[in-house]
Structures are given as structure tokens and as C-alpha cells.
User: Fold this.
Amino acid sequence: MTDLDALGTFYLGAVVDDSFDRTPEPFVYDASDLTTHAVIVGMTGSGKTGLRVGLIEEAALDGVPVLVVDPKGDMGNLALRFPDLEPQDFEPWIDPREAERAGTDLSVYAASVSQNWREGLAAWGQGPKRVERLKRSADVAVYTPGSTAGIPLSVLTSFAPPSAAVMSDTEALADRLGGTAASLLTLLGRDPDPLGREHILLAAIMDAAWREGKGLELADLVRLVQDPPVKRLGVMDLEAVFPTPDRLKLAMALNSLLASPSFAAWTQGQPLDLQRLLYGKDGKPRVAVLTISHLSDAERSFFLTLLYSEVLAWTRSLSGTTSLRALVYVDEIFGMLPPVAEPPTKRPLLTLLKQARAFGVGLVLSTQNPVDLDYKALSNAGTWFIGRLQTERDKQRLLEGLRSAGGTVDVSALDTTISSLPKRTFVMRSVHAPVPFVFQTRWVMSYLAGPMSREQLGRLAEAGLVPRAPVDDETATPSSSGAMQSQDLAGQLPDAQETANRPMLPPHLPELYLRNELVGTPVRYFPSLLGVADVYFHSKTHGVDEQRRVSMLLEPMEGPSPIEWSRAEPVDLALDSLPHEAETGATFAPFPALSLSKKDVDGWQELFERWLRTEGAMRLFRDPTSKATSRPGESEMEFRLRCAQRTREMRDEAIAKVRARYATRLETVQRRMLREEQAVAREQQQFQARAASAAGSVIGALFGGRRSLSTAVNRASMGAKDLGDVNRAKERLDDARRQYAELESQLEDEVDALEVGTVHPEEIALETVVVRPLARDVVVRFFGVAWVPHVSVDGRWTPATLPTT
Assistant:
């Protein structure tokens, strides 16, 4: 009575008997067990592809996003999901050489593939409806870092300051700095040793910039390596540890990388943002396939180190959970986690294996080379899927790893089993199961076309199987000059009414200047009102206790309503560092014809404070079902995903309680069934013995006297009574079986009812709650005029600074 699509379970195949023949019993795996990670080991041809694709398909069906690291280029096959199972669906993805080897044309061969796939799915209890449900459950997107064959990924965001959570965590910040520096040195072909002076210098430069809230580009690193912001490395002088001529060589190497045409591909595409990779804008989970088969070894190490560091930072930003939140699958981990060497990919992987389980992020690592894995590092893996292995050395290394990961292991039994495993058959050794299981993998729903060429990756988007780049529609980003594009602050070139002289403002209206990012370009200053205040938000009801620095920039306008703070723009600036003098040679636009009396200026400030307490108040989202409220700064989609995750946790907890509640009752009825089965057997034996005795008495009566005849009659009568006892015992057994079936049906109905309450993130009906500061909670730090520098672009004045957040 196993439900192949039960909540929180993965249908991976079928249990096999001692002869490795498939049995009718499906093999299902508890999704939450993957939070303790898994390892797939097997030689080429053992069937790892079917197992890994099946795992990813089941995760997608359960609404769990998956990040797939694809070194061989064949995991794009996950996008080949054809619910109609028609020959024309398969034909574009079939290698024509296969049809030639089969001695037929492509269309006929496609028809045979279609029929084979249809029959294969049906043999495993699957069909078009399940394939369609898989296609609806999660989108597949194929990313190609360093290439435009799929969706390109830009790695420059990895040089941007990490989140506040990472900056406040010493260990997390050290991991991020070390990973970024090591990946860059690897790409340069230099030693990424964390104790090397090049690594230490790059990490120190990035640390200094990030602590000031500044991002870095490669060009910045070229300059800062020559003139670092730090003058000591450790306790020693910089020049003693890393002299200027040696730093110049490192700067030259970085400059050569920057000048390389191939590096341009790393600056294009979607940012390396885990939230955007794993979820669509509507919160729909995604299977994100990161294909790196086109990269060199150095480029792979560079990208994977940055990727695993990003995964680690994203994981640490999550709340704790025991349910599976996301899955990270790494295919062929060869070289990333060796037993002795320390490649830059090893440290973030080790940290993920130790810490990710607490946040519901599961890792699945696959390899065909057991001797090249650090099994002591993988001792945190709770599940091992073991396929056929080729050499005795591989088996011994594997058994050594199992001892580290699972405690006591029956080495001789596993050794014998592993040596005789046929294709597509695996031993599952799990800390969550008392004994190993042997199972055969099911037929996968994705068509396995093999490694995909660049042309095939392009055809995936043309066929509508994956999204085109970019995956998410994004607003326009600032230009490379950093100029803010603002209709409110941009105006026509100066006319006769504008003046080159600075307007005279009263002393009760203080002035300062925003910085000109385009140094060396003639500028004209336009006036805006700048309000800066520290606002304290507090609410016990919604768990808010936060102080924010709020800075708003407003262009005053002549007319009946010159000051409307609803038109203001938020700005991000360091108030204490802004200059109080204009640039030499700058010109000024006139201040609007407004009354600048102290009373009017005080009124503008009062309007600013009132706006902070009303329209500028903190707005949060609230889920009335779970009574949860979003955190300050948390986006609506992030909150929806958190609510959906909590719903998943509540569902899992409810299912566990239902199963626990029925477990005792089912055990009681099982024991009763066992007693009744024993009673039936006992009564049947007694009846058979009585029948044989009665038959002997009848024969004796035929040849004996009256006494023999009387004995035969008595024994026949007792035999009839025994037959009645047998029938009554069978009735009691049937009643127990009916009771067990009813309990199972009730259990299944209650579990199904829980699924009805599960909602998608975008279906959650949210409310908006407002946290308003009191008058005493608003402290104005500056209120006055900010002169915004503009430059002339195509006949229009365009801001030459980047004030908007």
C-alpha cells in the first residue's frame, strides 16, 4: 500500500531479493534523511546516472530546489521531460548515429525510443501524468559560467561586500575571504596556499574594502596590490614581507587576466546569487544545472571555489530546520575533496558537510573513484549509495569510509554483496536504517540523451524546455560610470535664467555637496533638500527592535506643493565624509523661488519628521495562518519562502504524529493477527488429527463390536466440533485483517488530508503591518541643501553621482 508520491518521500526504485531480482516492494527514501548528506559511489556503467537523476526528479516533485554541479555536461538532460511521450519529442535529441547503428531512419528509431520510454515508465508504476507533474513542479535552467552557450553567470558579485550576517561572523568572513582569494590565485595559476603572502595580501585588501562597504573590481585589485590599504601583514612591515617589485609582478598577472578576451565571459550574465538560482521570482523552486564541462581545470577550480563559498554564505543566512530545504548535487567530485591535498574547493565543502544539515541543506556527492575521496571528511554523510566497484582497492577504501561514517559495519557481508552487484543495483547504507538495503533504481522520467553540445544547449531554450537568458527580468543597472539615472534630478542644459554663481542661502539652511564620481569632467550643481535622521523602530508584537539611518533626497519644485516627501528618493551616503565645498570651476543652477524663512524651513523639517512617522514607517508582511511576521529588510518573496518552509515543517511534523499515533494500533492488530493465525493453524491440526482418529474408529467398528461402533460415533461428533472451531478461528482472523486494512486506510486518508493544506509560496495570503516610530524615536542628524553634481550628456544634465540605494 505504499504511495509512490507520498509527502516527504522519494521513490527511487524497488527492493531486490537475494538473487538481485526485483520484488514488487517499492523502495522509498525519507527526504529528511538527505539533510545528513549522501554519497553515491560506483564504477562507470554501474547505473549512477539513473540514481542521481531519480533523486533530483523526486526532490523537484516534492518542491525542493536543486543546485546541480555538472562537470560532464550531461545533466542538462533533466530538461528533457516529455509528458506526451511522442516520437517527435524525442527525435531532436537522438544522435543520428544511433539510428544508423540500428539500421533504420531517425523517425522510425524515434518511434521505438518513444515506445521504449512509455513501456519503461509503465513498468515502474509511472506514466504521462507523473511526468507532467514533474514538469509543473520545478523549472530547469542550464547555466554556463564563462560561456554564453546557456545562461551566463557573472562572478564579479563575488568581489562585492557580503551580507551583514557574514560580515558579523568572524568564521564566515574568513571563509569568504579565503575562498575568493584562493579561487583568484588558482585562475592565475599561482599557489593558493592560505599561508602564502599573495593569498594573505589579497584577503587583506578585500577585507579592508568590505569593511568600508565597498565592492571591488579586478581593475581595483590591480591598483591596490601596488598600493595596498594595509601597511602591515601580521606584525611585520608590508615591504619586508612583500616588497614592491614582487607586488608589481602580481599586479601584472592580474592585469594580464583583465586584458584577456576570455575573461570577459566571466563578467557577463546573471549574478552568482543562490536565491535567484534556486527560486523563480514567483517563489517556484528550480533545478539549476551549472554546466562546467567547457572549462579548464584552473577555471573549474576558480568557479567552484566561488560557488561553494556562495552556497556556504547563503546557507548560513537561513533559519534552522530539520526538513529538507534545498539539495546540492555535485557530480563526479574527483579532485575537489582529496584525502591529502588541500585544493581551494576542499575547505568550503568540508564546512558545508559539517554545518549545512542544521539549515536543511543536503549535499549529495557522486564519484567513480573511491580512492580519491577523503572519507574522514565524509564521515558526516548519513547515507551511502554503493554500486558496482571495479577494483579491490576501491572496495577497501570504501569500507574504510563506511567505518568512519557509520560505526560498526559487517565488512565481509558488504564485500560479498558489492562484488556481485549487477547494473542499476545499489546497496544503501544509512545511519537512519538498522541494516543495509539493496535496491534497483527505477526508470527515470527525463530522457537521457548523453552529454550535450553547445548547439544542443542553445536548442533547449529554442524548444522552450529551459528559460532564455536572463532567467529573471531585472531593472536596469547603473552604468559603469555610476551615474544615477533620475528624471527628477536631470534637466535641460542651462538657459539664460541659470547662473554660474552659487546661490546665497540663509544660515539656518545648511549646505553640503554630494561627491562627483566623474572626476575631471565639468559639473553643474543642482539643489535638493537632504534629510538625514536616525529612526528607532520598536514593536514587541512583531519582534522589531532596530535603529536605522534614513537619508532622503528631494528636489524642491515651485508651485502650490513645493515640498512633498513622498517624491523623495532614498540615498546611501556617509554624512560625515561629504565635502562642504564645491569643485573648482563648477557652476550652479538657481534655487527655486521659494520662501526660505526660518519658519518655512522648520516647517519643511517638520514635514520630513512627520513623513518618517507615517509613509516612511517600517512595513512588514504577516502570514495570518502561521502568525509569522517578516523580518526588517526581508523581501516579500524571502518571507513567502520562509512561510512555505515552515508549512513544510509543520506538514512533516503532523505526518510524523499521525504515523506515530497509528503505529501502536497497527502493532496491536498485527499481534492479534499473528495470534489468530496461530489459532487457525492449531485448530486445523486438531481437526485433522481428530478426523484421522475417527476414520480409524470407523474401520475398527466394521470389524469389531458395539463398543467400537460407539467410539467411532463419539469421535466423529468431536471432529464436527473441531471443524466449527476452525471456522470460528478463521472468522476472527478475517476480522483482524479487516481491522488492519481499515486502520491503514484511515492513516492514508489522514496523510492525504494534510497535503490539502500545503500551499505554494505565491498562494500565501499576506497582510501588511506597519511599525510606526514615536516622535521621540526620530532624531534628525541633518536637514538642509545637498548640491548634486551633474554632467552634460547628449544635451541633458545627468547626475554624476550614485546616491540612490
Observations:
- Residues 491-617+772-799 form one domain.
- The chain has a mean pLDDT of 84.
- The chain has four domains: 1-86+134-152+269-467, 155-265, 491-617+772-799, 636-763.
